[in-house]
């Protein structure tokens, strides 16, 4: 994860690009730095893509990215909610239809049924219950009513599992 004291006030996209280039200087990176909205998703997906990794935190853009990616028949893996989760042993990977006890996955499934989508892509999720005392109601945040703190290792674990699956699928 790029969140370090030394990367404060820097764009995540720039920090991650530098990190990836340090790992592999020959990698081709197409940085996109904007809040993704429904009308921009076709533009983002209008290129040759081997895989789409969805790690969007906001519900509507996440749903529309999933819908458009599936319509274009691009392989997809989506990261669900890590907020409030603490136990790395409970993190799982499954088809969206098999996810459970994850509020974000439930909301995604509900919205996708309006598009006739009930299955067909993998998600990383944790069925671990979130302590209700850790949920914070927010007023001024775009596309969110609540937020939950996230322990530093959980997003990293979700990312590692996602990357592992993408690499294994592309290697087949």
Automatic annotation (TrEMBL):
InterPro entries: ThiF/MoeB/HesA (IPR045886), ThiF_NAD_FAD-bd (IPR000594), Ubiquitin-activating_enz (IPR035985). Pfam families: ThiF. GO terms for molecular function: tRNA threonylcarbamoyladenosine dehydratase; ubiquitin-like modifier activating enzyme activity. Residues 10-171 form the THIF-type NAD/FAD binding fold domain. GO terms for biological process: cyclic threonylcarbamoyladenosine biosynthetic process. It comes from the Bacteria. This is HesA/MoeB/ThiF family protein. It comes from Geofilum rubicundum JCM 15548.
